[in-house]
Amino acid sequence: MTTLVSDAPAGRHRPRGAGAGLAMAVLVGLAAGAATAIAQGALPAQVASLANSSGSWCLLAFLLALPAPTAGFGAMAGVASLACMLAGYVLTDVLRGYPSSTGLMVFWGAAALLAGPLLGLGAQWLRRRPGTRAALGISALCGVLIGEATYGVLVLSGSTEPACWWAQAVLGVLLLVAAAAWKLRGLGVIVQAVLFTAAVATVFPVLYMHDSVLMLLVP
């Protein structure tokens, strides 16, 4: 009987905490999307690329999913945050008289549905799961950061500030090192994280290039 009484509150508080995490993902996502729309025309040229970076949104989605108590809630937080960033961005631009293109909405809608769960699940695995799953978790984010930075340096250096992309690549490496020191245990797991990150970073520019063409083709 004592066990039943002591376990009941924990069972009740867990969904409530998860709901608060989802609400935070929604609110922060909307605010971040609105801030992105405004920042694109307000930031100096030296850092303007940050407002157009997929990595910025993915990093925020990852952080918002970190407190998730379960893998399911982590995935939902990833989807909710990216979807609300898109909604906040589009609504802010509409209110300012700048309607967003269909290509942009298709691109980020697909990112919310496909990348959102992976980022959210990765955050939850990094925080609460050992071994290979923790390595996979941090690799999803670091691979995106480094992969987009590679694309920026190789393809966009003529129209954007290369220093921003180099900084993003360094951030991806530093996050991987920090995760290795904080959560990853054993040389084998660290090697897995490095290899997984390299794989994502290699594939990302290819996928990003195809999606960028889609944004140009779809008005």
TrEMBL record:
Listed transmembrane segments: 20-39, 45-66, 73-91, 103-122, 134-153, 165-182, 189-209
Organism: Saccharopolyspora mangrovi
Keywords: Membrane, Transmembrane, Transmembrane helix
InterPro entries noted in UniProt: DUF6518
Coiled coil: none
Protein name per Swiss-Prot or TrEMBL: DUF6518 family protein
